Amino acid sequence: MRYVAIGDSFTEGVGDELPDGYVRGWADLAAQGWADASGDSVEYANLAIRGKLAWPIVDQQLERALALKPTHLSFNGGGNDMLRPRTTIAHIVDAFSRVLERCDEEGVQLILLSGANPSAQLPLRRLIQRRGDLLSAAVVARVAERPDVVRALNWPDRELSMPGYWSQDRLHMNARGHHRVAARVITALGLEPPAAWWSLPELPDFAHMRRADYMREHLGPWVQRRITRTSSGDGREAKFGTWITLEPQAA
Question: Is residue 249 part of a domain?
């Protein structure tokens, strides 16, 4: 198998930082879990960059990913778009249709993900919930007649929306959340993930940090980037721009 992932911070793995600073995330976990569950090596690349909107993901990552000649490509996007009120749901969903179209043309199987739902912990939670519901439903409708598309849908997962699966910034999943998403991807591929991945022991709960601290450390910098029209992904390179080989590991 040759699996390439494209997307934003969700797919890059932000929130699942290891002690040495490496950003892991569900795609890394799923790729290794795929090798372990199948007993075969998996070629893996990850072109995702944090902060990207849906169409820049398509414009900047899709053709580069397809040039690697993968057998499978995963795509998720739109989380950053949803936070911008002028962006329409149809505009975001058209990006999903474009990815599916190009995968069809290249003979690549699409693994389609919806992001997890962070709205319970965020300001403007009702707006984010409503837009996320609309986006999730619209994407599912676009692929309704395509049983060959692998679906790993996380937005409807109420367990995953609980605070214990989220990092300090309340916008990105922590290691627990990324493991749960990886388990869903492996299951969608028809394989068996480690049972513990569905709900690892709880990590220290940062979701209840004081409002003033949260505003200063997380919300304030996000607002500043919107004002200056900069992105957390500016200047970043893909963590795996070419293939790495993952061999099955013993349980």
Answer: no
Specify whether the CB–CB gap between 153 and 190 falls below 8 A. Answer: no
Q: In CATH, what number is assigned to the domain containing residue 117?
A: 3.40.50.1110
Distance, first Cα to last Cα, the chain: 20
The pTM (predicted TM-score) of the whole model is: 0.89
Split into its structural domains, the chain has a count of 1
Domain of 19?
Answer: 2-240
Q: Locate the DSSP E strands across the chain.
A: 2-6, 42-46, 72-75, 109-114, 150-153, 240-246
> DSSP state, 238?
-
Q: pLDDT tens across 131-165, in order?
A: 999 999 999 999 999 999 999 999 999 999 999 99
- Residue 155: CB atoms within 10 A of its CB come to 21
Sign of CA dihedral 34, 36, 42, 46: positive
